Amino acid sequence: MLLRRCGTDALLVEVDSLTEVAAVRAALQHLDGVEELVPAARTVLVKGALPQVREVLATVDLSHAPETRSREVTIPVTYDGPDLDLVAETADITPDEVVRLHSAATYEVAFCGFAPGFGYLTGLPEVLQQPRLDSPRTKVPAGSVGIAGEFTAAYPRATPGGWRLIGRTEITLFDPKAETPALLQPGDSVRFVVA
Amino acid sequence: MKRSVTVIRTGPQALVQDLGRPGHAHLGVPPSGAVDPDSLKLANRLVGNRETAAGLELLLGGARITAEASCTIAVTGPAVRVWIDGKLADSHQPVHLAKGSTLEIGTPDTGLRNYLAISGGIDTPEELGSRSTDLLSGIGPDPLRDHDVLELGSPGPAAGADVVPPLRAPQELHVPIRLGPRDDWFDDAETQLRQGFWTVSDRSNRVGVRLGGTKLNRRDGEIPSEGMITGAVQVPPDGQPVVFLNDHPTTGGYPVIGVVDRDHLRFLGQARPGTSVRFRPIG
């Protein structure tokens, strides 16, 4: 673990894996005075309460994330994405098997970014861990469900994007006017079910 | 009926802004809020509002607003001329606006953003605890259009604030910067920053101030996306730094050479294209 200074009141905590990211995030999550806590692929950005943060980090066990009560979210998906056949071909399985694999796994929101409510979910079966498209789409419709590398995600709104799209969901992923604006938050447990 | 004002003319860009919605970066939501929060807070104090009330952020002034109810207003930020019903009035002072009166704000001589506070504050609905318009992610009200009507909140007692000299945006900025978190991506980051010379690009906006000038030499490649804070100076492969302002993306994959002190960020946010910028690295 490496602590990198980020201005006067923030630190970038650099670790070696998503598991370690989850451990750091969980350890700091309920600390008083923390203004922002932003997990990412190999880092956690923490703003505020730096003395207390350093104290917690001195003793944190990085080998496993402490048991936190994670919320469970279910996302219904219609698996008719434009890249479903490409994904099946790349994995050397049938499209039905892609659907079965993607909807049987349990995922965790590792972090959010790119756009409000866009959660990067880990737990993707290995044969579905595939590269991005060679040429990104200029517009991916809202609700599209895709895969890229070790992650799967659902697009909260229409944006450009290079993920391989395997389906779509009607569920609202982000609504700034709602009491809980983001459906997905870091640490949440997520399942996709066939709509 | 609620008190309101009508925006007859917005000028180049008029946005509802308060102090933003920090604390939601883990959901991918930028902090947003006034680029020059000190000026917005001052305008609010002058009209007896809480500092957190929403006002208007006016890019290069130019707005024309009619009061549909009696109210007190104050215009802050860079020095700018203000007229009420065609008569010259003071900026940086509380000014009374009778029902039906029209306020006109000129173009500031220096700087970019004026702030208008109105007694009671602008009462658009909050989104994630703030009324601010976030131009990156589209959260909050849309940028204002001519003839928009803005409802106001309930005014508090008049506060009576000091007379304050207007901000004067300098031609050349010396910006304190703290190295890190990714200064190790650069050969001698401190010297490169200290010896470099940049000007503010006209492609700057509320997402970031883009600087053009000395190329900062960095390693090739990208970092897996990581959390970004306001004031972070990100360096893309072309070596031209970008200083993140309030509507910055919450994560990014280019190395951050250093972070500009919060107290100095407002001066960059007020810097017109062409303004000279030098960095002063601290520790």
Name given to the CATH homologous superfamily of the largest domain in chain A: Cyclophilin-like
CATH topology of the largest domain in chain A: Cyclophilin
**Radius of gyration of CA atoms of chain A, rounded to a whole number:** 18 Å
Number of domains of chain A: 2
Helix content estimate of chain A = 10-25%
Distance between the termini of chain B: 56 Å
Structural class of chain A: alpha+beta
Describe the fold and architecture.
The complex is a heterodimer of chains A (195) and B (283). Chain A contains 4 helices and 13 strands. Helices cover 20% and strands 32% of the residues of chain A. The model of chain A has no long low-confidence stretch (mean pLDDT 94). In chain A, strand 6 (107-112) and strand 7 form a beta hairpin. Chain A has 2 domains: 2-59, Gyrase A, domain 2 (2-Layer Sandwich); 72-194, Cyclophilin, CATH 2.40.100.10. Chain B is mostly beta strands and 283 residues long. Chain B is built from 3 helices and 20 strands. In chain B, the strands form 4 sheets. Chain B has a 7-stranded mixed barrel with strand order 12-19-16-17-14-13-20. Chain B has a 6-stranded antiparallel β-sheet with strand order 7-6-9-4-1-11, with no helix packed on it. A 5-stranded antiparallel β-sheet of chain B has the order 2-3-10-5-8, covered by helices on one side.
